[in-house]
Amino acid sequence: MATVESTNNYAAKLVELPHWIDGTVIVAELQTKGKGQMGSAWLGEPGNLFCSYAIKLPFLSPKELPNWNQAVSLAVHDTIRKFHSDPLWIKWPNDVISKKGKLAGILIENSLQRTSIKQSIVGIGINSKHAPQTEGAASLDQFSDNEHLLMELSAQLEKRYFQLKNGKIDAIKLNYNEHLWMLGKPCNIKYKEQTLNVLFQGQNDKGNALFLKENGALELGIKEFQWISLPY
């Protein structure tokens, strides 16, 4: 389809139907009300890749949601790696960045049951052609084949899906940490109007970012802090 308010919203309506096909992907050339993390907006230029996957995850428990985020992040990172020569990182929790700026964002919206994940809507925006007019955005340098990009993305997502389904959670964690920006390194973050010098310890089992500071550990969720020392 050409234009939608949000591919995630469209997918959310799809999964309300009595019968829908697992793995369905919604693709648009433009989102007018794209969504980012915690209610923020995802701004995208026309022609970039905007898509949402509707996926059933009955084999994962709610406590394994952080592993699903890691799997999706790796799928997007590895897809972009196929088309982009600059060094890439996953900026916690799931942005894909280079030295030039943010290349892709992910919004995962889950429907939970008591012991399992009923379904997951995975929204992905990749700046394939144009960098949005926002600070810190970058694109894939004149890339023009969104169809090829989508095929690779679907293949990478399927690969990580089956890794999780087959219980390869440790492999997912290891791969995620290999590409996680600033893991094990000192960095500066803004927290409660203060600038803190901390050591980034990665993502804990609850899905929060873990930092070490002079007087102990600091566990923070998304939107509770800001990175200060970005590579771009």
Summarize the structure in words:
- The protein is built from 4 helices and 13 strands.
- With 232 residues, the chain is of the alpha+beta class.
- It has 2 domains: 3-179, BirA Bifunctional Protein, domain 2 (2-Layer Sandwich); 186-227, SH3 type barrels (Roll).
- The strands form 3 sheets. It has a 6-stranded antiparallel sheet with strand order 2-4-8-7-6-5, with helices on both faces. A 5-stranded antiparallel sheet has the order 12-11-10-9-13, with no helix packed on it. A two-stranded parallel ribbon has the order 1-3.
- A hairpin with a 2-residue loop joins strand 6 (95-98) and strand 7 (101-112).
- The protein is globular, with a radius of gyration of 17 Å.
- The mean pLDDT is 91.
